[in-house]
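Quick review question:
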């Protein structure tokens, strides 16, 4: 089952919704779940959308299934029922939810496609991961596969498929091969994007519906800017 955008109310772009799950296209700058910044999280925006759409009084149930980094965009799934949440959590834990990402980088990798393997160690103090070629203490193995989809005048569009889900994995690994993501100052790009976003987008996800057992395939359009628009031409 493939789904298209069904709502863009109140700047919330809903890609799919039924009784059990809701899938939205996260904007850059949104946090998925509340954190120490106390900024309004996307989860609260989705709750408000559900409360208004269905005229629900009182608290709205919403389960956070997974997250995306604040400056990234793309597919985020929430659970609307307590029945679906543990099943969705298991899908992600068992890597049965297949995701791919788009990344725009300035320097083209030396190979048109390839696999990157590193051991990443997270530093909580600066919220940054460092890649190592071999395992070190407190590091975690990170594996991704990439393919160059398109080359523009100054940038290159990559498709990324993850085997592991580590902290800042795509950002760290692409930077390690000299291909930092556009706008990603933290991982070596030379300047930020005006809106503090980075050109990393959770493009597509496919999974078996946790209750209906139907295949779900969802694709999120990237934000509209000159670079992303050129990637879609």
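Suggested answer, residue by residue:
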């Amino acid at each position: 089952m493939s789904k298209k955008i069904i709502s863009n109310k109140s700047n919330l772009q809903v890609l799919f919704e039924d009784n059990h799950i809701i899938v939205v296209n996260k904007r850059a700058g949104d946090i998925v779940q509340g954190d120490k910044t106390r900024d309004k999280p996307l989860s609260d925006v989705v709750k408000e959308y559900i409360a208004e759409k269905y005229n629900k009084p009182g608290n709205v149930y919403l389960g956070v299934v997974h997250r995306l980094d604040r400056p990234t965009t793309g597919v985020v799934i929430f659970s609307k029922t307590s029945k679906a949440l543990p099943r969705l959590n298991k899908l992600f834990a068992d890597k049965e939810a297949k995701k791919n990402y788009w990344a725009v980088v300035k320097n083209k990798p030396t190979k048109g496609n390839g696999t990157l393997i590193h051991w990443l160690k997270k530093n909580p103090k600066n919220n940054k991961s460092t890649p190592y070629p071999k395992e070190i203490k407190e590091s975690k193995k990170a594996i991704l596969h990439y393919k160059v989809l398109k080359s523009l005048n100054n940038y290159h569009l990559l498709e990324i498929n993850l085997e592991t889900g580590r902290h800042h994995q795509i950002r760290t690994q692409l930077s390690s091969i000299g291909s930092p993501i556009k706008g990603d100052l933290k991982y070596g790009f030379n300047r930020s994007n005006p809106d503090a976003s980075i050109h990393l987008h959770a493009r597509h996800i496919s999974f078996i519906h946790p209750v209906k057992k139907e295949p779900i395939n969802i694709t999120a359009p990237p934000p509209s800017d000159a670079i992303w628009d050129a990637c879609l031409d």
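Why it works: Residues 1-7 have pLDDT under 50 and may be disordered. The first helix runs from residue 42 to 53.
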